[in-house]
Amino acid sequence: MDCSFLSLQGKVALVTGASRGIGKAVALCFADAGADLGIASRKIEDLKVVGDEVRKMGRRCTEVATHARYPNELKNLVEKIMEAFGRIDILVNNAASNPAMGPLIDTEEKIYDHIMETNLKGYFVLSQYVGRVMRDQKQGVIINISSAGGVSPAEGLGPYCISKAGINMLTKAMALEMGPYNVRVNAIAPRIVKTDFSKALWTNEKLMEREFKSTPLKCVATPEEIAQTALYLASSAANYMTGHIVVVNGGAFF
Ligand SMILES: NC(=O)c1ccc[n+]([C@@H]2O[C@H](COP(=O)([O-])OP(=O)(O)OC[C@H]3O[C@@H](n4cnc5c(N)ncnc54)[C@H](OP(=O)(O)O)[C@@H]3O)[C@@H](O)[C@H]2O)c1
After folding, report:
1. Is 3.40.50.720 the CATH number for 7-248?
2. pTM of the predicted model, to two decimals?
3. Separation of 96 CA from ligand 1 center, angstroms?
4. Are 108 and 87 in contact (CB under 8 A)?
5. What is the pLDDT of residues 73-94, one digit of tens each?
């Protein structure tokens, strides 16, 4: 069977939060599928390590230190990638944070604002800048890394879940508006993925015992498994898919 429809040969992909975890796995998977890469996160030295791996695979890579919370840095990111490649075919919005846990009614306003600005506004602003490029190109794919927490609430993660629910609607609203320009917009909603971000969860044996009672596949996801879903959505295999929130959760029912 010819599976060349999964190829990203000749494409330029921009991935945020690409220095580790899911973003790094997506960047390396896309490079393996043939794409050139623009990668971003706050620490340039960590990005360079990933960039070197991409170059070893024979692909081009431009690293840009970028804080997802600051619109001027996101504007600079898009300008740098356009200078390097002249186009952006795929955007993966992935950089997000969750600096605090606790009940919603005790959440400080500055924590709430921090989470909304980084996670939801960060995806929104970058989608605007890249969306304009894609509108002019009359072609593009945007993939938002959301969370199962954006579909059903998780205790102690209220503001984070609200930001991810917002990302789900951002995905659907942008898909509606960008479809006529041949730009597809989808989201991936993982549950627990084995990265630094959720280490406190997947290293907690008692919690995992409870988790797996309601998870048919009895394990958490690897970053590579999320990257493979992103590859499908980015490729022409998903040409007729837009506006979807693809839940990747081992079949968890809660
Ligand atoms: N892991 C999970 O269980 C899980 C489950 C559902 C959804 N997700 C989502 O998956 C995405 C990636 O998470 P992950 O698990 O791969 O996390 P991770 O391993 O902690 O990696 C996060 C990446 O984002 C960058 N980053 C963090 N804050 C940033 C900021 N303010 N501005 C720019 N870059 C920033 C980090 O680099 P720097 O620190 O250098 O900036 C790093 O490259 C997030 O959107 C998260 O909400 C994760």
Report:
1. yes
2. 0.98
3. 5
4. no
5. 999 999 999 999 999 999 999 9
